[in-house]
Structures are given as C-alpha cells and as structure tokens.
Amino acid sequence: MTSTHRKTHSSHWGAFTARWQDDRLVITPFSGDPDPSPLLQNMANALGHRARIAGPMVRRGWLEQGPGPDNRRGADEYVALSWPEAYERVAAELQRVAGESGPEAIFGGSYGWSSAGRFHHAQSQVHRFLNTTLGGYVRSVNSYSSGASAVLLPHIIGDINEIARRGVSWQEIAQHTEVMISFGGLALKNSQVASGGLSEHTERGFIDQAARRGAAFISVSPLESDLPAEARGEWLPIRPGTDAALILALLHVLVSRRWSDEAFLARYCVGWEKLVAYLRGDADGQVRDAAWAAPICGIPAARIEALAARLHGRRVMVTVAHSLQRAEHGEQPVWLGLVLAAALGQPGLPGGGYAYALGALGHYGKHHNQVAFPALPQGKNGIDRFIPVARVADMLLHPGEKFFYNGRHLTYPSIRLAYWAGGNPFHHHQDLARLRRAFCRLDTLIVHETAWTATARHADIVLPATMTLEREDIGGAPTDRHLVAMQQAAAPYGEAKDDYAIFTELARRLGGEAAFTEGRGAREWLAHLYQQMRERLRERDVSVPDFATFWQQGILELPQDQDGGRLLRAFRQDPERNPLPTPSGKLEIFSQAIAGFGYADCPGHPVWLEPQQRPDQQHPFYLIANQPESRLHSQLDFGQYSVSRKRGGREICRLNPDDARRLGITTGDVVELVNGRGTVLASAEVSARIMPGVVQLPTGAWYDPVDPLAEKPVCRHGNPNVLTLDIGTSSLSQGCAGQITVVRVGRFAGEAPEVRAFEPPVAASRRPENSGG
Ligand SMILES: Nc1nc2c(c(=O)[nH]1)N[C@H]1C(S)=C(S)[C@@H](COP(=O)(O)OP(=O)(O)OC[C@H]3O[C@@H](n4cnc5c(=O)[nH]c(N)nc54)[C@H](O)[C@@H]3O)O[C@H]1N2
Ligand SMILES: Nc1nc2c(c(=O)[nH]1)N[C@H]1C(S)=C(S)[C@@H](COP(=O)(O)OP(=O)(O)OC[C@H]3O[C@@H](n4cnc5c(=O)[nH]c(N)nc54)[C@H](O)[C@@H]3O)O[C@H]1N2
Ligand SMILES: [Mo]
After folding, report:
1. What distance in Å separates the CA atoms of residue 250 and residue 252, rounded to the nearest whole number?
2. For the segment 651-703, what is each residue's pLDDT rounded down to a tens digit?
3. How far is the CA of 634 from the centre of ligand 2 (A)?
4. What is the pLDDT, as a whole number, of residue 458?
5. Separation of 360 CA from ligand 3 center, angstroms?
6. Fewer CB within 10 Å of terminal CB in the chain, N or C?
7. What is the pLDDT of residues 110-128, one digit of tens each?
8. Does the CB atom of residue 114 touch ligand 1 within 6 A?
9. Distance from the alpha carbon of residue 322 to the mean position of ligand 2, in angstroms
10. Nearest Cα residue to atom 47 of ligand 2
11. Where does the secretion signal sit in this chain (predicted)?
12. E strand or H helix at 150
C-alpha cells in the first residue's frame, strides 16, 4: 500500500497531497493554498513512528484484578491482547456497567479534536456507538476553546456562530477598517488551524492588504509575537488577565471626554447607564479610570488615555482572543470587548464592530458554504445528564455534589466507565496530578488512540486507531470552499483499525450492529453523506459531480454565501424590526438574566474582579500556557516539525532578558517552573518579545512525569498543564481557565533527566492464569 501516485488528503492545518518516494512520504501543500502551514511536515514521519500503538493492550492491574478504582493508572505495565479478546473484554465491560448502573454511569463526552475527515471523526463515532448500542451516555457541553464565551455571548449578543463570529469578514476588514484593536493579538500561528480542514490560509494576505491601505493594528498582549509582522502594528504589553480593567478605563475615558456614541448606545443597547454608574463608582466610591487601571494592567495612565483617543472617531474593529476567556472570570473581557465596540458606535458598520475570536482559528472571518457537508448522525442520547466540559475531574472526584451552571444547579453524576476516542485529556485538562487521581476513581477507562499519548498510558484498555492517511474520508468545513477526498496513502500501522471498524465489531457483539452501521461500510457512508450534500445543492440549482467522479478528481469547489454580516447590518438599519436573538432584542451591556442568577463571580454587567492567581513572593511569574506554533495541541508532537522546534527534546520556555539576567538564565539552559501542583522542565529562550514578569510555555508537549504517581509530579518534557489550576471560569459558564497561572522560575541544577515521552511502554507478558495475580 505504498503507491507512488499522488493522493489528495486533508488535515486540520491544510489540504495536501501525499506520495511515496522510495520509503519516504512526500507531503506537498495544496496548490491553491496561498500560505500553507509548516505543520504539514509533522505528517511526513508520523505513520511508522515508534510512538504509534501497534496492537490492542490491557493494563496489567485491570487484567489481573478486574475493573475498579486503582491508583496504579499512569504507572502500570501493559499486556498485549489479540483483537478478538480485546473486543470480548470491552463488550463485556460495557455490558456489565450499563447493566448494573445504566448508561448514566458511562462518560462518553470524549472531548478532543480528533482528525480532519468528517466520517471517521472519532468523537462522532463514539457518540453514535454509545447511543445506538447502549442507549446513551453522560455528555459534556461547550469546549476548552470557548467555554466562557459560548455561554455568555448568547445572553448578550445572540448565537455565537451566527452573530459573534459571522458578523465580520476578513475581506471587509481589509477594505474598511481603520483601527483594529486586538486583545490577545492575531497570531498567525493560530489561524493556521481550523477544525475539519483549511484549504486556504488567507489571514496573512488580508492583514497585509489592510496595513498597506493604512489600517492601524494594535495588539494588546503579553507577547509581541501575537502580532504578525505584516500588520506593521503596535504592541501594547499588558499584564495577563487584566484586560477587563484596561477596557473599563478606556470606557471611562470615552465617557468623560464625551466621546461615547450615546445615540448608538441608547438605540441598540440596554444597560449602558448601569455600566456608567459602575465606571463612576456610584455604589462603591471606586472610579474606574486610567489612573485606577494603570497599576493593575502595568500600562501607564497616559498611554491608556492616548489609546482611547486613537479609537475615537475611527472605523474600529475590536477582537478578543479565545485566550482571554480561558482564565478566571474569562467572561469579563469578552463582554467588555463588545461594550467597547458599542461605545464607539461600531457594530453593524462595514469593517467596524466586534469580531469575537477573529484570528484565533482559520475559519473565523470567512464566508460560509451554501450547504455544509453533513455530519455523521449521532442517534439519540437517552441520557439527559451533562457537565460543562472542563469540569471532568470535579465530576469524577465529587459524584453527587452540586454545581452552578448558567442559571442551573446541577449534580455531578456517578461515573464508573469513561470512553475516550479522539481526544487527549492529559493534554487539554488542568492540574494533571489531580486529573490522574480523578481517573483512578473509575472502574474502567477505554481509549482509542493512534499513538501512546499520556491518556493512552492511563487507560485500562487501549485500542490502536488508524491515522487519516491509512483510511478514506472526506475533509471539509462549513467555511472552507474546498471539499477534499482524503484518499488512502498507506496501509494501517501494525494491527491498527479504523474507529468505525472497531465500533462496528463492538456493536455486533452488543447486538446493535444494524443500528450502528445502517448496513453501510465506510466507503458507502462516504458516498451516502456526499449524496446528501449533492441533493441539498441540487435544491439550490447547483450541480456537482457524482461521488465516483468527485473521488477521482480529489477536490471539489463549493458555492459560498457572501453575506455573513447581514444580521447585524439589518439590526443596525432597524433594531425594532430586526432584533437580535437576546432577551431584549438588543446588545446587552446589562443582562437581566445573568443578574437574576445572582453569581458574585459574574454579575449582571461586566466588571473587574481580582483573580485568585496573582504573582506573589513564592510565585513571582505569570505563566502563559498558550497554543503551540509547531503543532495542533498534542497531535503529532513526535512529528519532525514539532521536534525541530524543541531543544534537547524539551519544549521551549520564553522569558524576558531582564528576568533572565536576574535569575542567571541564558538561552539553552534547562529551567524549572514550579508551583504547588508540580514542576515542569523546559529549555529556556531569552527574548525581548515577551514582557517582564511573564514566562511562556506553550501547550502540547506530551506529559512525561519522572514519577507518574508523585503527588506533585515533575514533567521532564514541558507540559504546562502540570502547573495550571483546575477551576471553572465562573459559576455562569464553568469554562476552562488554563491559559494563565503563576510559577517560580529557576535554572535547573544538575543533570536534567532524559525525555522519554515518545518511548512506548514496554509490553509485559501475561502471567500464567493461576499465579495469584
Ligand atoms: N493550559 C492550557 N490548556 C489548554 C489550552 C490552553 O490554552 N492552555 N487550550 C485548550 C483548547 S482551546 C483545546 S481545543 C484543547 C485541545 O485538546 P485535545 O483536542 O484533546 O487535543 P489534541 O491533541 O488535538 O487531541 C486529539 C487526540 O486525538 C487523537 N486522534 C487523532 N485522530 C484520531 C483518530 O482518528 N482516532 C482516534 N481514536 N484518535 C485520534 C490524537 O492522537 C490526539 O491524541 O486543549 C485545551 N487545553
Ligand atoms: N498552531 C496552532 N494553532 C492553533 C491551535 C494549536 O494547537 N496550534 N489550537 C487552535 C484552537 S483549538 C483554538 S481554541 C485557538 C485558540 O486561540 P487562542 O486561545 O486565542 O490562542 P492562544 O495562543 O492560546 O492565545 C493567544 C494569545 O493570547 C495572549 N494572551 C494570553 N493571556 C492573555 C491575557 O490575559 N491578555 C491578553 N491581552 N493576551 C493574552 C497570549 O500571548 C497568546 O499567544 O487556537 C487554534 N489555533
Ligand atoms: Mo480549542
């Protein structure tokens, strides 16, 4: 299966062709992509990498003692299983748990990005499997990406996808915007990626076009690198987690200079007067002006005043990155970004207004396809219990306890079994030692993985999944005008199987095969889903070739809808006839609904709230744990591009020259980042592009603890989630707050331990049946 023909294929970071040259896989970006991503090269050496999982495996403790809570998870040996025995054991265990406790004891949220390819999308597969064979599962809602904003924005502007994200296009910004102020920047490293696929990387070009026309870009961020060089913009360093205070001060300047657009605020918004009272400090005597914000944000008051003057009277676009809301009280800067745009009178104007998270992913600010490629139907989940996704460890550690969420008082379910396919909680979750303790409470953890991630290493049963290049699929996203036939380029690694094939066999053993497969094999599903899209297009008088022709030609261009901003424009034209889908029909600067929930950590209008994590004597530095430029999350961390961006096999941690000098650290030193949750080693890089008092270590280095059972583990590779705090953003949304924490930084003394993250666990042999176990 090593054909020398070019195969078309796709990934979350771009479309490409793959071709074998001798025994080397040559990856060539899609010719229509103006700015292809270097992440593509992570795939070149991935297929046969030793970190891949070659066959089904079972954890020794589970094999010998049977299901049940077990503190050895993460440190145990693995024993190889044949596929028939693996199927037998998984099916029996699902049957046992569902029989004894019902599907409400099974957690099937399985959060994670999986791979591009809409049919084999692992999360859809596992959900469909649990629904059709067991009647359902406990699910998770929202995402690690936008945990706080996904709950907040519907209250204050309306549906997050329709209005907050579709309101503004890059094209329009390139043509009309005069000032683009981006809280959290517009890092091109981030817009390389879009879930489902991204055939054209256009952000760099649009930013360049806007800057050439004279648009001014201002990036408010602790890191200079969040602003692309093409923007020729201005970097305004800010202390992490303090943007809400800065925006309040900007609003105060606008009000006191009579620069606020009172006509806009009166006609299109509710609650402005309540916020003005808060800015003046009517209730508590605290004026929120530039002098008040300056020491909080680390920005001189005069600079805040000057910034407000630059925004006044211009066509301004405000963006707030996802990162700002992945933090304590993350709702506040998201809400205030909208208020700033409203106070400047911008929403609904061409090139003006608020574009939440624009630039954070490659599919924001793009046009939408007239017809989206259909998702694999997931069936009906008979269990109506859920958690906000980032509360997974709380759920496992505190079954039966109550928690607040978006006006509801919910109870954590009692989970016995978790099933994970297509996600890596030991990448995405916070406080990994706590997460391990939480997973140790389970009877059973089942994981499908392509490679030996830390999540696979904590599982009781590990089933090897194929990578996309080893199967056929269709790549597409609602904002990508190319649909890509993901043709198979290689035979499966070892005994790996497609998630679909694994679930089909399990469903057969559980008596649900017909419901799960509907009688279709993988190729038939692709043809079936394609045909559905083709029919919907035909209803709009668009004709596209049949499946066989599409498959052979490899790439299909789809018609798009050019008018994403129409809802906001219509609202601006006539807010009474075209109200927003909020309770008041207007932009909500004050939300009666949120106020009614009575949450001290998220009141009825946006406010500044002190976070509990602030630098102190013991932890003098902020740690920014942001998205990595060298890969998508933890995916293909062993790939050649990701590895080339490490030093000595360790992830790189950036710090400011002043801090480095004081601590006696130079580029290339191994440093340790320490707090009450653990220690992380990384390779230091001294850089003036990060503000003093802040260090940055991206996410995604595979968790590699020296002693996996340690209460405060030491990760020798550089996974910042050892250090981050596992708390919700607020009672409103309970989102992930992993972007920022506080640490102590020092040079690592002595011989640094070798990184072992990509060494698979040693396959232990099975002990004779009656050796006592
Ligand atoms: N501290 C901190 N933590 C964060 C963030 C942060 O900013 N700071 N960001 C958060 C965000 S925004 C996100 S979205 C999450 C991302 O967290 P995840 O989405 O969980 O991270 P990925 O590494 O993409 O995990 C996908 C996993 O699926 C596997 N996989 C790929 N294809 C297949 C397949 O076909 N079948 C199977 N069975 N498996 C497959 C991959 O090998 C990989 O291990 O992380 C979050 N965590
Ligand atoms: N290459 C690559 N791209 C990705 C991903 C990836 O893993 N790799 N993940 C994708 C996913 S799933 C998502 S959700 C998006 C996430 O998009 P974001 O969450 O926006 O991405 P981050 O890189 O975590 O953060 C963006 C920048 O915000 C800045 N920042 C952090 N804290 C603060 C703060 O308090 N105030 C201000 N003003 N700035 C702050 C940091 O310097 C950081 O570089 O990225 C997507 N893009
Ligand atoms: Mo995300």
Report:
1. 5
2. 999 999 999 999 999 999 999 999 999 999 999 999 999 999 999 999 999 99
3. 14
4. 98
5. 9
6. N
7. 999 999 999 999 999 999 9
8. yes
9. 6
10. 190
11. none
12. helix 149-156
Given a cut of 50, is residue 773 above it in pLDDT? Answer: no
Protein residue closest via CA to atom 34 of ligand 2 = 240
Strand segments (E) across 706-762: 714-715, 740-747
Confirm or reject: Cβ of 464 under 6 Å from ligand 1. no
Q: Which of 635, 673, 726 to mutate to test the pocket of ligand 1 (most atoms within 8 A of CB)?
A: 635
Tokens coding 108: 């099937």
Whether residue 140 has its Cβ less than 6 Å from ligand 1 = no
Nearest-atom index, ligand 1, CA of 120? 35
* Sequence-ordered list of residues with C-beta below 8 angstroms from that of 617, at least 6 positions apart, any chain: none
Q: What are phi and psi of 363, to 5 degrees?
A: -105, 5
Is the per-residue pLDDT at 2 higher than 70? no
Tell me which DSSP letter residue 160 carries. I
The domains of the chain, with CATH numbers, are 7-43 (no CATH), 57-144+382-468+491-521 (3.40.50.740), 152-366+568-592 (3.40.228.10), 621-747 (2.40.40.20)
One-letter amino acid identity for 34?
A: P
Select from 364, 626, 634 the residue to mutate for testing ligand 2; criterion: most ligand atoms less than 8 Å from CB: 626
Ligand number nearest CA of 455 is: 1
Nearest CA among 323, 353, 341, 346 for reference residue 243: 323
- Residue 118 corresponds to which tokens in the numbers above? 């809409």
The predicted structure's pLDDT at residue 3: 63
Question: Is the CB of residue 626 below 6 angstroms from any atom belonging to ligand 1?
Answer: yes
Tell if the pTM clears 0.85, that is, is over it: yes
Query: Does the CB atom of residue 421 touch ligand 1 within 6 A?
Result: yes
**Token couple for 9:** 């294929």
At 770, list the tokens: 């009656």
> pLDDT of 317-373, one tens digit each?
999 999 999 999 999 999 999 999 999 999 999 999 999 999 999 999 999 999 999
- Tell me which residue has tokens 């046009």: 367
Helix ranges (H only) for 184-297 are: 188-191, 203-213, 243-256, 262-268, 272-280, 290-297
pLDDT of res. 772: 41
Please tell me the distance between residue 633's alpha carbon and the centre of ligand 1 in angstroms.
5
As to burial, measured by CB atoms within 10 angstroms (0-12 exposed, 13-18 middle, 19+ buried), residue 402 is exposed
The atom number, within ligand 2, closest to the CA of 238 reads 38
Q: Which one of 323, 637, 654, 697 would you pick to mutate in the ligand 2 pocket, going by the greatest count of ligand atoms within 8 A of its CB?
A: 323
Residue closest to 669 by CA, chosen among 693, 686, 645 = 686
State if residue 488 touches ligand 1 by the CB under 6 angstroms criterion. no
> Residue of the nearest CA to atom 8 in ligand 2?
632
For residue 654, how far is its CA from the centre of ligand 2 (angstroms)?
Answer: 15
Distances (CA, A) of 633 to 123, 211, 748: 16, 30, 26
Assigned token pair, 488: 């198979």
Question: pLDDT band at residue 769, thresholds of 50, 70 and 90?
Answer: low
- Check if the beta carbon of residue 460 is closer than 8 Å to that of residue 350: no
Per DSSP bridges, beta strands 139-141 and 179-183 are unpaired
SS3 of residue 421 by DSSP: strand
So what's the pLDDT on residue 768?
74
- Hey, what are 424's tokens? 């890596």
In angstroms, what is the span from residue 97 Cα to ligand 2's centroid?
Answer: 39
So what's the pLDDT on residue 563? 72
Question: Which pLDDT tens digit goes with each residue over 231-241?
Answer: 999 999 999 99
State CA 414 to chain mean position distance.
Answer: 26
The residues assigned a catalytic role are 111, 113
Q: Are strands 316-320 and 179-183 parallel, antiparallel or unpaired?
A: parallel
Ligand nearest to the Cα of 724, by number: 1
